[in-house]
Amino acid sequence: MKPISMIWTLFLLLALLASAVSADLTLSVTEIAFGGENQARSNPLGNADDPQDLISNATIRVTLTNTDATSSVTNLAHNLLSTNAPYYFTVSEFPASLSANGAKEFTITARVPENLDAIDSNFKLLKKAIGNFKVTGVNSTSSETISTPEVPMTIQAENMLEIKDVELCFRGKCKSPDDGDDVKDMKPGDAVDLTIIVENKYSERDEEDLQIEDIDVNIEAADRDLNVDEEETIDDINPKDENDVSVSFDIEDDTPHGGYNLVIRASGKDENGALMGEEWTIELKVERERHDILIEEVTLTPESISCAEVETTVRNAQAYVQYQNIGQHDEKDVVIELKIPDLGIVEAVRDIELDEDNEETEILSFGVPAGTKPGVYGIEVRTFYDNTKLSDLMEKTVTVSSDCEGNGEQDSEPAQANRRTQNAQNGGDERGDIIVVPPPQQPPAVIPPKQPVTPPTQVNESNSLAYVIGLGVVVLVLVIVLAVLLVTLFRKRH
């Protein structure tokens, strides 16, 4: 046989084969997905008057098409049975045959089980695989059995346990991030307080009205530089109600600069045994500056002072400054400075060496001058690196009482001792502010001197004038008396 004839014969055979199998059935969907993220479940525990109201069904419309332009398809059938528990599939409006190029729409219904989980083991919303669907038929021309491709079936119901809110607090400020957000400005050494609010979204309608029980809340940051693993439990949450858990953890002093994923998971089962839950991921941005001398705390002591005491040679108040090098380098020229601007007070400790991640405490002493007007005065504590470059600032206050106003004269020793006793027994406020308590009113104690007192170097002008006048009067009287005596004696002689 010539080559051209062979090719032509092969072409005819292929054409005949294609004609013989050209009849085909197709479905309009590539997946039969029952329900969805808002699909209700059946609930045999409900209290509805009609039991049928406690059954929740999901339906889907599908189009079946015969793509053969010349042959019809008969004896159409599907593979679903109404006895397939717990879904109890039903198919309605299903055609018995299709004409050439014909199409027909039909409905598939499935019961949504009461214990259908909302999430999988990875906390992803679950579309549960429940089998495959296909349609078969007979080509009217060739009598050949044909079928649609198998289409997967899935079913999904609503997740009724959600993380409603998260509050994350550190260094006196709180933030409420959502899933996927980041939290910036966190530093090594921060103490973090985390509160998680979890909500049961079931309604109180008779068809629902389900508790969610035994809720586990897990907080995890699985990183070698930030290792957080906390777990709490909530017993039950009623419908349309919420509950919260709180945990605390620290960002370690040596945590490097960077972002760390904090994963929060909450899961529990409703009264029908359906698993619910949610997962949030929040990125913690730990920021480490090249130079960062952090003030961790400033404690003022004693908690109460009297400014009259500063006339002595002993300072009468101290600020304990706890600080840490959370920068990226060792430091050699750290300065800790305390200022009370309105009183002109400045105290500082200089030339401090502080290695990376180390912390120290410095004590700065200061006193309130006598004659200071009563009131509240601000205290500023600062840290510097390289001697002059500001790193951190913390503010406190000191309260000056009325006994500081006057001419600055020093009380007697018993009065000072009594005031020190009063101050030692007095409590300050929660911030560590200094509360100055005035001394009790009492008559001054009289203490006789053990030795002659050296006259003061300065004499009051009014006292000096009185003294001179008095002395002149005394001298004048003595002169007059002497003159009288001399006259009387002279007369007697003559």
Protein model, in words:
It is elongated, with a radius of gyration of 47 Å. With 494 residues, it is mainly beta. The chain has three helices and 27 strands. A hairpin with a 2-residue loop joins strand 15 (212-223) and strand 16 (226-237). Helices cover 13% and strands 43% of the residues. A five-stranded mixed sheet has the order 13-19-18-15-16, with no helix packed on it. The protein has a five-stranded mixed sheet with strand order 23-22-25-26-27, with no helix packed on it. A four-stranded antiparallel sheet has the order 1-3-6-5, with no helix packed on it. It has three domains: 3-156, Immunoglobulins (Immunoglobulin-like, Sandwich); 161-286, Immunoglobulin-like (Sandwich); 293-435, Immunoglobulin-like (Sandwich), CATH 2.60.40.10.
Keywords:
494 residues; five-stranded mixed beta sheet; Immunoglobulin-like; 3 domains; mainly beta; single chain
